[in-house]
Amino acid sequence: MKRIADFRDKNSVLFHNLMPSDERDAFTNHNILNVLKTTDHKNRRVMIVQCGKTWDPTKVSSDQILRMLYLIHLLAIQEPETQIFGGVVIMDFDGLSMKQIKGLSPSFSLKLLSFIQDAMPLRLKEVHFVKQPFLFNLVWTMFKPFVKEKLRKRMFFHGNNMPALHNHIPATHLPKNYGGEQPEIDYSGADWYPTMLTVENKIKEWNTYGNIQK
After folding, report:
1. Which end of the chain, N or C, is less packed with Cβ atoms under 10 Å?
2. What transmembrane ranges does the database entry give (predicted)?
3. Domain of residue 190, CATH code
4. 10-19 pLDDT, tens per residue?
5. Is residue 99 part of a domain?
């Protein structure tokens, strides 16, 4: 809890009293973050992050994505099963261009990895990178120096090799978008955003926790 409080204090401009309604537009009108309706074969929640052509940095900044990830993790830890089994992230870089790369920055890389590695109470089991083009190397060069060994061992790079992804998450538990047997994703954050509103009081309570200000 101390590390979480320290992270929030250090980045208070982003997270102070943050509520789902603060990023309603990003959640509902831009299909950047999505969560599969069902868990995987190990009962883990699966989140999709669209880092390629779907993401328009002029409409949703990288800092907003970080705020959205923070809010989603607060939603996830309300589920007892997710507290136990953790979550998996699929980073989809389909159509990545310089437009998205320019929207990233070393400071964002540091904040994101600091959150994942030091301040996220949710158990992150695996991170899968898929459909990444050659330009992805520029992104990875930014992030790689800050990735600790524990997280590095949980990162897997698949490109367009969906069978490689299926070695970790069976096709039976993935949508057709990723070579799976489940129906293609036909929903977005607009469909599950109302669920976030049902736990607003919990998030308000969470916002009161932290270091005692002297």
Report:
1. C
2. none
3. 3.40.525.10
4. 888 998 899 9
5. yes
